[in-house]
Amino acid sequence: MRRAWMSVPYRAGSLNTKPGRKVLYVSLRMKASSTRAPGKRTKPPEKSLLSPPAPPARHQGEEQKTNLLRGRFKLARLPEVEAFSASLPFDRRLYRHDILGSIAHARMLARVGLLTSREANAIEAGLKEIEREIESGRFQFDLADEDIHLAVERRLTEKIGAAGRKLHTARSRNDQVALDLRLYLRDEIGSVIQLLRALVRSLAAVAARHLETVMPGYTHLQRAQPISLAHHMLAHIDMLERNRERFEQALARTGVMPLGAGALAATTLPIDRKAVARELGFKQIAANSVDAVSDRDFVLDFLTAAAILTIHLSRMAEEIILWTTAEFGFAELPDEFSTGSSMMPQKKNPDLLELIRSKSGRVAGNLVAMLTVLKALPLGYNSDLQEDKERVFDTLDTLKPMLSLMAQLWPRITFNTAAMGAAAGGFALATDLAEYLVQRGVPFREAHEAIGTLVRELSAAGRTLSAVTLAELKTLSPAFQADALKLLTPEHSLRARKVAGGPAPETVRRRLAELGRKRVL
Ligand code: ARG
């Protein structure tokens, strides 16, 4: 079985292997590098999913010193070990943040005298060129580099020579990767928050149009009491606002600068961590070098916020699915968001919403996977931590389109306000009648029982509350007067529910205005 490593969308470039170091289990377009490793290069045949598995490559006994770290080894790694251990196929996504961090590090090294300013300038220019090479697809990725950090450093040394070999002074990949991931996540959480805000605005626009649109609120998925579509939308907005707060908290936890922790015990060299933090816009530096390289709580915070958010999106998706069934008939999906059936010509299916509903499981799975990676992990850097990135990337790739699609969908849904209003009448007004009696001095339990009896009798007769007469009401309680019958419309019920937090149009309008003032909208 060959595995496709490249399932995540990468921006540019292709991954190379060395001749004679064929990578097993990797189905990729492989090109021989033009600039590295001694010896003759042959282009390995292109592979497709249909070609038979490659025979095991003969392992070259003698080390080819192509990886920056292999000074202490006599033998090269088995190609299969190399392929299994490499994070380059996925962590190349961090290249911009890796380069950003390295530039800040180099500037600091120059400031404290560990580099000349000439060297620092050469490093900075070289790194910027590498960024352009990656962006334009010219960069030759090579699995032997293990990860994006070594790939960039190797290329820098190729480009600028000796100065490049000084970049990693007072730094380890352990603090480097922690920095890169924090920088990356800081940007990405920022864009998730923007997408969340756009979704909130799209819900608020629907709410503003439907302050008076009555619909039944449900408990146990049984019609309960009248609310408005706007009030229901604002329930989702409140949920999304809590999600935004969770992402803001995750962002704050991400904003701690780990560089300078080195492998785990900092360094004997006189570096200036605060200068690096300032340069990169961090307010804080990690206070403990061991924690700095061991900590992935910020990843957990992000994944937790994402998991809760996608669970909320699944609830939202499920409601639209229900509302668009013939049984509910409250809403219709726009064609652009619907799917047909391969067999049944009449079908208009909500596949998109079903996928949004189910992908919440995948995001929750990413959280559980990360919790499991960290469980019982001793402090200090462990390679287990390399597994954090795919959980983060997959979560982002799943979550961002979910948010964007939901924001685009809501304003295009057509609501059948007549069907919603009709479903909000009848027995959904029973509590209103009981509360009428309470206002006239009847204890609530007595009122509840009286109206319960009325509901039983009317249902047995195939009638509903809207058909009840004053005479019938009076047999239940002498407290009933003619005005009781006026209660029996969902519109009246809605207007009467003016308690703070309730669904009355005035209350909801005030809440919308308040959200606008708080700049939520
Ligand atoms: N590729 C590694 C990761 O993603 C970078 C840090 C590697 N450090 C090490 N000592 N192996 O976590």
Characterization of the model:
The chain has 521 residues and is mainly alpha-helical. It has three domains: 91-166, Orthogonal Bundle (Fumarase C, Chain B, domain 1), CATH 1.10.275; 173-262 and 281-421, Fumarase/aspartase (Central domain) (Fumarase C, Chain A, domain 2), CATH 1.20.200; 428-488, Fumarase/aspartase (C-terminal domain) (Ribonucleotide Reductase Protein R1, domain 1). Helix content is 52%, strand content 5%. It is built from 18 helices and eight strands. Strands 1-2 form a two-stranded parallel sheet. It has a two-stranded antiparallel ribbon with strand order 3-4. Strand 3 (214-219) and strand 4 (222-228) form a beta hairpin. The longest helix is centred in the middle third of the chain and has 37 residues, at 173-209. It starts with 13 loop residues before the first strand and ends with a helix. The structure holds arginine. Arginine is lined by residues 87, 91, 147, 173-174, 177, 381, 383, 385-386. Residues 87, 91, 147, 173-174, 177, 381, 383, 385-386 line the site of arginine.
Please report the first level of CATH classification, the CATH class of the largest domain: Mainly Alpha
Summarize the main sheet. Answer: 2 strands, parallel
Number of helices: 18
Structural class: mainly alpha
> Largest beta sheet: what is the strand line-up?
1-2
Rg calc: 31 Å
Q: How many β-strand stretches?
A: 8
CATH architecture of the largest domain: Up-down Bundle
Percent range for β-strand residues: 5-15%
Order of helices and strands: EHHHHEHHEEHEHEHHEHHEHHHHHH
* Helical content band: 40-55%
Mean pLDDT: 89
| Uncertain regions spanning at least 5 consecutive residues | 1-14, 17-45
Intertermini distance = 50 Å
Any idea what the shape is?
A: elongated
| CATH topology (fold) name of the largest domain | Fumarase C, Chain A, domain 2
CATH superfamily of the largest domain: Fumarase/aspartase (Central domain)
Small ligands present: arginine
Domain count: 3
